[in-house]
Amino acid sequence: MSLKRILGASRPLGGPLAIIVLVVGASAAAFAYTAGWFSPARLTPERIVDALSRRGGAPIGHRRNHSKGICFTGTFVAGGEGAHWSTAPMLAQGSYPVIGRFAIAVGNPLAPDAAGRVRSMAIRIVAGGQEWRSGMNNSPVFVVATPQAFYEQALASDIDPAAGKPDPTALKRFRAAHPETAGFFRWAANAPWTTSYADQRYNSLNAFRFIDASGVAHPARWSMIPQTAAQTITPEQRKALGPNFLAADLKRRLAKGPLRWRMVATLAQPGDPTNDATRAWPADRPVVTLGTLVVKRAEDEASGPCRDYNYDPLILPSGISGSDDPLLAARSATYAVSFDRRMAEARQYPRDGRSQ
User: What does the pLDDT average to over 306-332?
Assistant: First the structure.
């Protein structure tokens, strides 16, 4: 895996940051190797990217999942409480720059916003020459627990050319074959809809490990808790919305001032699963406030600062590491393939205002 693929950006690196990224990349490659990702007889990231590319729209030059999004910039203001649990430099008290992205979980970059049940926030925090990248969703659990199941879900979501939408029987068969998806689909059917990215709670879903100054690892998941009150809408109101209501709402809110999320980490207790993102941890687990994300500006992705970044969840600073969740290696490897494809496509085809 090349340095560019690991980093997910076209900007050159040097010095300590290059060394850090190489270490992170080696760790990701080790995860992928032990998971069988580089074995041609098994599921590969290329096959997953191919499946994600067949869900409608025109993905050329775009991310293959969460294809429609908008960039943001801001700061992460750490209060210092997280430094007790992790030596990550951006958890020490201070303020650190952030480049992020809001998106909806669709494969079509021109899809109407109402087509995306899942909304996401991705962040890149830089401190002390190190990076922390994270992609979070507004669902409380992930839909599947393994890369193979994710691949099967992508296949079940293929667009039927005759109908112009996925085959409902394929989706029904997928759900019947994967009972672990029940929690996600209950949320999707019952959670209220809103018209904003600003009022959503975003969750890492995958488990990670915070490593303290003594070298002790603490399994953790993190979340962004909005400081903006949610205003729910009815199905009828949702149908009346324009195709790009989320970006319009974000820009309108930011024109009045910054938006804030409180970042917290939930710490696991013995016996809590760290290898299954479909299973939530009990609500009584300890919660640590890490700091506040302050979003100050939004820019269209076609020319925005997040466009050339890959929000690989295994690009982590010292003091944070991946867990035994198999989805982490899958996400890392798949993001690298998707990034390489869209960058090659961007060079081959003229830019036409679409996000890349």
Answer: 97
Taking the C-alpha atoms of residue 36 and residue 50, their distance in angstroms, rounded to an integer, is: 18
pLDDT for residue 349 is more than 70:
no
- Is 62 marked active-site? no
Geometric angle at alpha carbon 258, from 256 and 259, rounded to 5°: 110
Domain-wise residue ranges, the chain:
3-348
31 — pLDDT class (breaks 50, 70, 90): very low
Return the residue matching tokens 């996400």.
331
Cross-strand partners of 160: 165
Architecture of domain 3-348: Beta Barrel (2.40)
What tokens were used for 189?
A: 């059917």
Contact 246, 119 (CB under 8 A): yes
- C-alpha 102/C-alpha 135 separation (Å) is 10
Q: Catalytic one among 66, 84, 178, 218?
A: 66
Question: pTM for the complete prediction?
Answer: 0.87
